[in-house]
Amino acid sequence: MIRIENIHKSFDGKPVLRGISGTFEKGEPNLIIGSSGTGKSVLLKCIVGLIEPDEGHVYFDDKEFTNSNRDTKTEIRRQIGMLFQGGALFDSKTVEQNVMFPLDVLTKMPKAEKLDRVNFCLERVGLAGQNHKMPSEISGGMKKRVGIARAIVNNSSYLFCDEPNSGLDPQTSILIDELILEITEEYNITTIVVTHDMNSVLGIGDKIMFLYKGEKLWEGNKNEIMTSGIKEFDDFVFANKVMRKLREI
Ligand SMILES: Nc1ncnc2c1ncn2[C@@H]1O[C@H](COP(=O)(O)OP(=O)(O)OP(=O)(O)O)[C@@H](O)[C@H]1O
């Protein structure tokens, strides 16, 4: 579980996050949604420590992260897996080398054990036997799968996905969402997914936080999105034609 308390962040005097609090539970994907520029990525970066918030606290399973010493931060960071926008694979490394990378950097595991773990993760994401392909030889959806395998290879307790569906067709997007959901449930991971994809919201949105201009305006699940009664949230949800049609039914 991850808990955030009163997170504030400004850049050059311009507030981007204005006191966001909330809880992200284990074993289910937690979605952060909102329009472009509303602060989703900055919030994610504040949670993982890539950006220092001006105010507020982040707790990983009740261990404070924000004001902790370097050792505690390192220990928590070791348990974090990240799936970046676009996959962010190393182009000059094979699929196997990409997935093994966190084990090379973070562990002293013997090579054979690392390879077993890499193969287990590749199989889990449906890429068994693709070890020696280069990123340039695989599709966008496969790259995301490699990214997911790399994010969980170190037995991560926390998984962060920034726009996991960007650049994918709708069918592949659904498969990637389902994979994230399955892995989250199976390994009881605390997963946070940043997205503005309404298909993801309807597919895996059992816990959703809606940000608007740096504030949390709504929280709920996919069954409650039609009845929030909040204009800014409705404007976001029903900007999508399919959602407008659904409302009419
Ligand atoms: N390092 C930075 N320095 C200055 N401003 C920044 C920095 N990072 C983000 N911002 C600003 O913070 C605001 C929120 O950006 P953020 O990337 O969090 O939006 P977002 O909701 O993730 O948008 P998108 O859906 O388009 O990715 C934007 O106005 C952006 O320009």
From TrEMBL:
Domain of life: Bacteria
Domain ABC transporter: from-to ranges: 2-238
Single GO molecular function: ATP hydrolysis activity
Keywords: ATP-binding, Nucleotide-binding, Transport
InterPro entries given in the database record: AAA+_ATPase (IPR003593), ABC_transporter-like_ATP-bd (IPR003439), ABC_transporter-like_CS (IPR017871), P-loop_NTPase (IPR027417)
Pfam family, one: ABC_tran
SUPFAM superfamilies given in the database record: P-loop containing nucleoside triphosphate hydrolases (SSF52540)
Name under which the protein is recorded: Methionine ABC transporter ATP-binding protein
Organism: Fulvivirga imtechensis AK7
